[in-house]
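Usage

Read records sequentially. Each one opens with the input sequence:
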Amino acid sequence: MGMSVTISAARAHDAEHIFKLQYLCYQTEAELYGDYGIEPLTQSLEDLRAEIAQGHALVARLGDEVVASVRARVDEGGTARIAKLIVHPRMQRHGLGGRLLDAIEERFAGEPGAKRFQLFTGHRSESNLQLYRSRGYVPVASEQVGPKLTLVTLEKEASALGAPPGRSLGEYVA
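and closes with the structure output:
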């Protein structure tokens, strides 16, 4: 008998699980760019807790295990900044990242202050770029942040939501 993956708001006690998952998931990014000093690998647990408290975080659970997460917050200009979309390596390539992205967008689409969604990824992170483009994001800027890494910023208007209409957060169950 298989178990379903459920997506819900992160709870305070999820921070340590998210922290460990983040460290695991960003190993491949660090290897891709030859830089193990990237922020997701050096972020402290306290900083992660503060980041979650300042915005909104979702987790995907397989039973009791946190297998994916995403965080976002809306800035003063009305941009919902989506960050650290992570999926456990064994759960990748099954649509879970797209479901989390849809769910976090839906969470902020109802806020009057959220006018657009924005996220970024490394220029060599083809699977990330493909996912974001498939969800309607378009590149709007790039910034070289190191000798081997250029960050690509992608954006879409809140009116162009990628989630199917009429679905609620509770319906994101595998």
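Summary fields computed downstream for this record:
- The two ends are 14 Å apart (CA to CA).
- The chain has one domain: 5-169.
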